[in-house]
Backbone:
């Protein structure tokens, strides 16, 4: 997610004194102070471990939101990986908040999404498809069609069909039809597939 | 006519469940996440509106997930109704989380029409 | 952009309408009943042609991928009734004087001012309506210092708001007594009286500039109606975050009647009052 220079936080490294202040701020008793401290961490790749550490301990929703926002506003692989890592959390709020942010970061997400779409865990694959939902990237349909070809889990396929219903083109018709045959005994896949084909057929 | 609120961020799932429920004679409203569901549920308890008889709730949704929605719902001073939680997660610990949050029944996706309807009737106290 | 030899789209298929409806709802929170089919189709076709697209699919792609968000803004303008006038969505002001303010004063230390922020100000109708409501419908006004600030990014419209000259159309919903009391006739139009103009401070702010918004703190009540629908998801979330920091704990924020925090941020609690559903910054930050 590109950050306007005028709204961004300083991108130079945090000098020692300032670093100590921020760390202290993250531990303040007042959540408003912790939130402020979290906001100052945006845009600094070296702060990523600090953010992750704070996220693990933090219980205030407002502070957690600020920590994640700072992560999303930080350039570099480490930050994106950190956000992607949140998808493995037991915490439903954290998973979904991370997805929401990743959706707004198409350029950074592109290099990591392919990996996530073939993750051994079904739930991760489903969440990864969820990221594609409003992702502004030209390859979204390609990734989904690739996924459908090889995917064995019915819910992952269902999630893919959901996204294709919005962004799919006639290029998807063949593979969706094949998918429907493969899951002919799943009423939801039949329903979703038909809905999708209906839309594609008419607007082709 | 019994009134059901479908809570799921996937439009296709909402359409699917809507088709099944409307076919069986229920009226349906939709919400695409827990917060929206909370607003819809609260608005339904206003003068002249029909409160919901059943909630059918997904787990993973933006802004407010299914567990949080159920917890918030149980805390509000509004007519309470049973909730069926529908999710892809099939492990034991997730069922427990669902019940602790206030779900009355937990179904694993994808929900097939016949068992889904059977569970709905069960929750609504309608014997077959 | 395709250069198509065929005639541009002259009708929207049922499937395209569905797809568009879902997308528009997801992005703006505004849901079109099927009865609005004609209304939507007509405007959609207009936009497809105005944007130079060959068909719905091309237009849809443009909407989804356009980084400037300009077409989205134009589309929203077309699809919504965005006229501003006095007393617009006044059920929220009823809620203000009957429910929100009483709750706020119950917690407020004596001597601490009540601060209300209305943004965007547009040409000032909303801010002046708030002022009149306080004067006419809030008995407690005498006991509290109230600061009303109204802001906009557009300096021309701010100047218009300060000038306070309104058409008959803008004032048509006002109770006659209020019109007589707070306005002076100027030809066809109505000029707001100085007493009321002095009660509202108009300022320039760009909500997307964190540094500018940082100056706004400790507000009890924020009205932000029919602005966020024009934003993209990221800016919308940032705006909600900004409002969170603008408000005091326990402070309230009201969005437009078709808008909902539910698609924007999970930081606010939903409060249902008899007159309206509004959002509140939690008192105890859990």
Residues:
């Amino acid at each position: 997610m590109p950050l306007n220079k005028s709204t961004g936080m300083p991108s130079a490294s945090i000098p020692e004194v300032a670093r100590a202040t921020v760390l202290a701020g993250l531990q303040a008793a007042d959540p408003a102070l912790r939130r402020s401290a979290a906001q100052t961490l945006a845009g600094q790749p070296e702060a990523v471990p600090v953010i992750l550490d704070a996220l693990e301990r933090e219980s205030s929703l407002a502070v957690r939101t600020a920590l994640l926002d700072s992560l999303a506003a930080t350039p570099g692989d480490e930050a994106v990986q950190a956000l992607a890592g949140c998808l493995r959390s037991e915490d439903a709020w954290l998973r979904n908040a991370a997805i929401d942010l990743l959706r707004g970061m198409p350029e950074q997400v592109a290099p990591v999404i392919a990996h996530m779409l073939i993750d051994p865990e079904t739930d991760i694959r489903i969440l990864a498809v969820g990221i594609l939902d409003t992702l502004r990237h030209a390859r979204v349909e390609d990734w989904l069609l690739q996924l459908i070809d090889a995917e064995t889990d019915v819910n992952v396929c269902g999630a893919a069909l959901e996204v294709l219903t919005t962004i799919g083109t006639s290029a998807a018709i063949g593979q969706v039809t094949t998918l429907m045959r493969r899951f002919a005994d799943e009423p939801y896949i039949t329903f979703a597939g038909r809905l999708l084909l209906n839309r594609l057929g008419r607007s082709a | 006519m019994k009134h059901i609120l479908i809570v799921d961020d996937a439009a296709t799932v909402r359409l699917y469940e809507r088709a099944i429920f409307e076919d069986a004679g229920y009226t349906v409203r939709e919400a695409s996440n827990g917060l929206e569901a909370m607003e819809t549920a609260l608005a339904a308890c206003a003068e002249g509106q029909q409160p919901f008889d059943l909630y059918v709730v997904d787990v993973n949704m933006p802004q407010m997930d299914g567990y949080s929605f159920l917890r918030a719902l149980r805390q509000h001073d509004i007519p309470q109704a049973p909730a069926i939680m529908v999710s892809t997660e099939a492990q034991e610990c997730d069922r427990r989380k669902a019940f602790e949050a206030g779900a009355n029944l937990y179904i694993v996706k994808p929900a097939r029409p016949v068992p889904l309807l059977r569970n709905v009737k069960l929750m609504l106290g309608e014997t077959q | 952009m395709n250069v198509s030899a065929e005639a541009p789209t002259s009708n929207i298929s049922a499937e395209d309408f569905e797809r568009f409806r879902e997308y528009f709802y997801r992005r703006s929170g505004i849901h079109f009943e099927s009865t609005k089919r004609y209304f939507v189709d007509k405007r959609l076709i207009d936009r497809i042609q105005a944007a130079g697209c060959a068909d719905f699919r091309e237009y849809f792609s443009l909407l989804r991928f356009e980084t400037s968000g300009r077409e989205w803004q134009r589309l929203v303008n077309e699809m919504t009734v965005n006229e501003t006038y006095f007393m617009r969505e006044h059920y929220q002001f009823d809620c203000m004087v009957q429910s929100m303010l009483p709750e706020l004063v119950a917690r407020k230390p004596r001597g601490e001012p009540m601060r209300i922020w209305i943004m965007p100000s547009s040409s000032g109708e909303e801010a002046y309506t708030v002022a009149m409501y306080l004067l006419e419908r809030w008995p407690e006004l005498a006991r509290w210092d109230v600061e009303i600030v109204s802001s906009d990014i557009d300096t021309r419209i701010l100047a218009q708001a300060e000038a306070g000259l309104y058409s008959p159309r803008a004032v048509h919903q006002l109770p006659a007594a209020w019109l007589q009391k707070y306005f002076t006739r100027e030809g066809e139009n109505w000029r707001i009286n100085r007493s009321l103009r002095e009660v509202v401070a108009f300022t320039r702010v760009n909500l997307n500039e964190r540094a500018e918004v940082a100056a706004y703190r400790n507000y009890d009540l924020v009205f932000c109606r029919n602005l966020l629908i024009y934003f993209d998801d990221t800016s919308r979330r940032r705006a909600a975050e900004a409002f969170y920091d603008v408000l005091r704990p326990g402070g309230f924020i009201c969005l437009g009647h078709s808008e909902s925090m539910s698609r924007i941020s999970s930081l606010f609690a939903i409060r249902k009052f008899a007159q309206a559903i509004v959002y509140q910054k939690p008192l105890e930050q859990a």
Chain B has one domain: 3-123. Residues 107 and 115 of chain B are 9 Å apart (CA to CA). The first helix of chain B runs from residue 11 to 23.
